[in-house]
């Protein structure tokens, strides 16, 4: 049985300017000890304008925290005003990039095809995509959460070879649980995360499926993280609001103590 290192990633969304980002990462670095990183990977997904500052801090102080972006252009370079390319993110030594967050799907019209192109752009530049999938409330009420989420997964992974897909991180984020305080039950999270892993086994191989980390995201806090992490197919969390509070984020990283 493969052991998967849990990934606790804070998605700052459109919060923390570059000065606040420095203060926040410094706070995290003071609070987190070497032993916190022994069996957990810690990452922050920062706004583009923060990334250079975060990089300088992480490099200068040799911090173990990883960082990445919240979006990536599907294009390599050229006349795409306002876009940020994968090579620009790679130059800033980002490890991760979120793809297809529900807020991008909802407010920026990102389809599964666009997510697929962005996953490809991430791999082209040596970045690890955190592919976000998950259903809205209507779909959940109709009981179609698994089919809906797996269709998003299939769409985003189209033509992605196993050598790439084996490093992907999938974040299952039910839209109705994001920023609402309405956390999915651990059983809800396990149902869909388990289905995602089985689909990865069908699309690729059991070995690959066993290696891929699947996060849960949606109103994760220090008080509910342990029960969610206890589920066999949940390998980490993608944390929004609670990641903006450094003390709370550290408690989430230390989920085994909660
Ligand atoms: O969208 C999320 C992380 O990407 C979850 O946000 P909240 O933790 O604020 O619900």
Automatic annotation (TrEMBL):
It catalyses: D-glyceraldehyde 3-phosphate = dihydroxyacetone phosphate. Pathway: Carbohydrate biosynthesis; gluconeogenesis; Carbohydrate degradation; glycolysis; D-glyceraldehyde 3-phosphate from glycerone phosphate: step 1/1. The gene is tpiA. InterPro entries: Aldolase_TIM, TIM_sf, TrioseP_Isoase_bac/euk, Triosephosphate_isomerase, Triosephosphate_isomerase_AS. It is an enzyme of class 5 (isomerase). The keyword Isomerase applies. The keyword Isomerase applies. Involved in the gluconeogenesis. Catalyzes stereospecifically the conversion of dihydroxyacetone phosphate (DHAP) to D-glyceraldehyde-3-phosphate (G3P). GO terms for molecular function: triose-phosphate isomerase activity. Belongs to the triosephosphate isomerase family. This is Triosephosphate isomerase. Its EC number is 5.3.1.1. The active site is at 101 (electrophile), 173 (proton acceptor). SUPFAM superfamilies: Triosephosphate isomerase (TIM). PANTHER family: TRIOSEPHOSPHATE ISOMERASE. Keywords: Cytoplasm, Gluconeogenesis, Glycolysis, Isomerase. Homodimer.
């Amino acid at each position: 049985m493969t052991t998967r290192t849990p990934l606790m990633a804070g998605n700052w969304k459109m919060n923390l300017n570059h000065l606040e980002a420095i203060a926040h990462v410094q706070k995290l670095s003071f609070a987190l000890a070497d032993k916190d990183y022994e069996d957990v990977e810690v990452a922050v997904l920062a706004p583009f304008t923060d990334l250079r500052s975060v990089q300088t801090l992480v490099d200068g102080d040799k911090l173990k925290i990883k960082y990445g972006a919240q979006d990536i252009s599907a294009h390599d370079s050229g006349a795409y005003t306002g876009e940020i390319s994968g090579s620009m993110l790679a130059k800033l030594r980002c490890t991760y990039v979120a793809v297809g967050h529900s807020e991008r799907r909802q407010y920026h019209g990102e389809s599964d095809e666009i997510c697929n192109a962005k996953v490809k752009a991430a791999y082209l530049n040596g970045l690890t995509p955190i592919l976000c999938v998950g259903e809205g409330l209507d779909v959940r009420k109709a009981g179609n959460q698994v089919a809906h989420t797996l269709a998003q997964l299939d769409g985003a992974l189209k033509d992605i070879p196993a050598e790439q897909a084996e490093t992907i991180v999938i974040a299952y984020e039910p839209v109705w649980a994001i920023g609402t305080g309405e956390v999915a039950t651990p059983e809800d999270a396990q149902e869909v995360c388990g289905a995602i892993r089985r689909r990865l086994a069908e699309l690729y191989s059991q070995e690959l499926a066993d290696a891929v980390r699947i996060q849960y995201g949606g109103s994760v806090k220090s008080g509910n993280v342990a029960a969610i992490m206890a589920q066999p197919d949940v390998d980490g969390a993608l944390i929004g609001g609670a990641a903006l509070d450094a003390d709370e984020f550290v408690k989430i990283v230390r989920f085994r103590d909660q």
